[in-house]
Amino acid sequence: GAVVSQHPSWVICKSGTSVKIECRSLDFQATTMFWYRQFPKQSLMLMATSNEGSKATYEQGVEKDKFLINHASLTLSTLTVTSAHPEDSSFYICSARDNRGVHSGANVLTFGAGSRLTVL
Amino acid sequence: GQNIDQPTEMTATEGAIVQINCTYQTSGFNGLFWYQQHAGEAPTFLSYNVLDGLEEKGRFSSFLSRSKGYSYLLLKELQMKDSASYLCAVSPYSSASKIIFGSGTRLSIRP
To answer: Given B87, B98, B100, which is nearest A49 (Cβ)?
Structure first.
């Protein structure tokens, strides 16, 4: 089945630094990937849609200059949290759709394992 | 706006049956999904409904009524490993794979 790899799994950084999270589709191409954020005991909140070769589309309330998204190839999207602050501490999860899946016609997403960010 | 509601927490007994409800009000509809998420892990796909009716897959079944904006996930023969959060999600858009998640239901299974 489709596999989405996310790296790093967890990261601790100092306030004011930037952190980059990578999301890779390992055995399929993904022209579109999605970035979610999840706070403890809460559900996933869609942050942005990452589009290969073009600008990301951000959800309302998400600062595009703070959460930089780059989708330079069909298998890689990156999320950079710039000038991180403690309130940015969260679980960040990416997802992508494998069009080859048995649920063709269904927009079934495969999720990465997530990246837990802790900003001190 | 988009609104997806489901109970925050539920408790059930091992071997029993539990039904997790989800209601939604979205600007459009292109399918409803159920995902399972264990603590600290990524969500895993359980089911997809786009037409009214019941979809059965082993111990799990999912039902959809588009006219009522309603779905449920039915889990049978509960096992301890079924303790997890269950996320109802809707694709309200006509294109691509963008889906919106509900707040999730934390299901606890007791022996």
So the answer is: B98
